Automatic annotation (TrEMBL):
Broad class of the protein's primary localization: membrane
One cellular component term from this protein's GO annotations in UniProt: membrane
One family name in Pfam for this protein: Branch
Domain of life: Eukaryota
Transmembrane domains' residue ranges: 7-30
Keyword Membrane appears in the UniProt entry: yes
Subcellular location as annotated: Membrane
Protein name stated in the entry: Uncharacterized protein
Keywords: Glycoprotein, Glycosyltransferase, Membrane, Transferase, Transmembrane, Transmembrane helix
Length: 397
């Protein structure tokens, strides 16, 4: 074979090998991103419920929020992730890039990062403004979800999304899981009667709340309720709060604008003063927390010594955790079956799981759920809470 023929043969062989490698890469890229056309999501009473998650944090919380997002991800749900105004635009953009790189998110488009952040002030009403804004966005972008769930960067799930959907499939979708009481105790004098101003509502810089020199009497035009700021609210109730065919939500929003820790009283007071919704309250936040005795402002940080108690609690979520605490890895391994950098698998994931392959890089019918071993505990918890609600023993009182 002459030199020219050998050169042509080498060129042809190299081109053929390159085309083969490109084909293999294209095939892998196609298969790793699931179906090019997402399977349709079916909503309604004959299908599993869907959840809208509002997950938020502050400066330095990007990776915590992304890890939490992966832990609670399911194609049937909707997600809004929010880094407060104190976080940098670079951090916010990096979070958006991380979310967009998740194969299922690229296909289903069911997660967003807030591009215009809200300013969150500790103990102020700006947190309620941010939550209402998030609910408004989620109502606008998705017409199918049933419940709205708030999570902070220091929270983590104790069940899979299949478990959660399975447990909530057996209850009415107008129920609201919100810890509440009208027994104000010491809070009446220390939180309800003082008048506070939240600079986060009108200042561009971060600032703490400040107090007025005078106090005000406890309202008598409506009854004040208080409780946990962590809620699971029905779509119908949030539409009432935001679209407002009644003036009650707006009137109470103006009042709680000057109440310390407004997120511990606004939704509670609206729902328990509304004849239409007061009988839909289930008195629980579905969270596992451990408090000091006497309790301080926040629950204690959970660690490996609390794992068994958490797993057996029948709660849906737990708080609070230190950043990258080892107990989170244990929850991933023993409860969520979640690999590092991967979403928590469910019945919708169809790829073969291995140390190098994400089981949720391919998917089948996303309208099917497969509850795991902890689903029974959550189902029993929810069932007992609903039975208690029906007995009127612990409802808006």
């Amino acid at each position: 074979m002459g030199a020219e023929k050998r050169w042509l043969f080498t060129l042809f062989s190299a081109a053929t090998a390159s085309l083969f490698l490109i084909f293999l890469f294209s095939f892998y890229a196609f298969s790793s991103s699931g179906s090019p056309f997402p399977t349709p999501i079916h909503h309604g009473p004959h299908h599993p419920p869907s959840f809208a998650y509002y997950i938020y944090g502050g400066r330095g919380d990007r990776n915590r929020i992304f890890r939490l997002f992966l832990a609670v991800y399911h194609p049937r749900n909707r997600y809004l992730l929010h880094l407060g105004a104190e976080a940098s635009d670079d951090e916010r953009m990096a979070l958006a890039v991380q979310v967009a790189a998740v194969p299922a998110v690229r296909s289903f488009g069911n997660a967003d990062v807030a591009g215009k952040p809200s300013r969150l002030t500790d103990m102020g009403a700006s947190n309620i403004a941010s939550t209402l804004r998030a609910a408004s966005v989620l109502l606008k972008v998705d017409s199918g979800w049933d419940w709205f769930i708030t999570l902070s960067a220091s929270d983590y799930p104790l069940i899979t999304q299949d478990d959660l959907a399975h447990a909530f499939s057996s209850v009415s979708r107008d129920l609201n899981f919100i810890d509440h009481t009208s027994d104000l105790g010491w809070k009446e004098e220390q939180r309800i009667q003082p008048i506070v101003v939240d600079p986060g509502l009108y200042l561009a810089r971060r600032s703490k709340i400040f107090y007025a020199t005078q106090t005000r009497p406890t309202p008598d035009a409506f009854k004040v309720f208080t409780g946990s700021s962590w809620v699971t609210l029905s779509r119908e109730f949030l539409e009432y709060c935001i679209l407002g065919w009644d003036n009650l939500p707006r009137m109470l929003l103006m009042y709680f604008n000057n109440v310390m820790l407004a997120e511990e009283g606004y939704f509670h007071s609206v729902i328990c003063n509304s004849p239409e919704f007061m009988n839909t309250t289930v008195n629980s936040d579905l969270r596992f927390m451990i408090w000091d005795n006497p309790p301080k402002m926040h629950p204690v940080f959970l660690n490996l010594s609390d794992f068994i108690q958490m797993a057996q609690s029948g709660a849906a979520f737990a708080r609070q955790f230190h950043r990258d605490d080892p107990v989170l890895d244990l929850i991933d391994e023993k409860i969520l079956n979640r690999g590092q950098g991967q979403v928590s698998p469910g019945a919708w994931c169809t790829a073969r799981a291995s140390w190098w392959n994400d089981p949720c890089s391919q998917w089948g019918d996303i309208n099917v759920v497969r509850p795991g071993p902890l689903a029974k505990r959550l189902e029993e918890t929810v069932s007992n809470l609903v039975d208690d609600m029906k007995s009127q023993a612990n409802q808006c009182k």
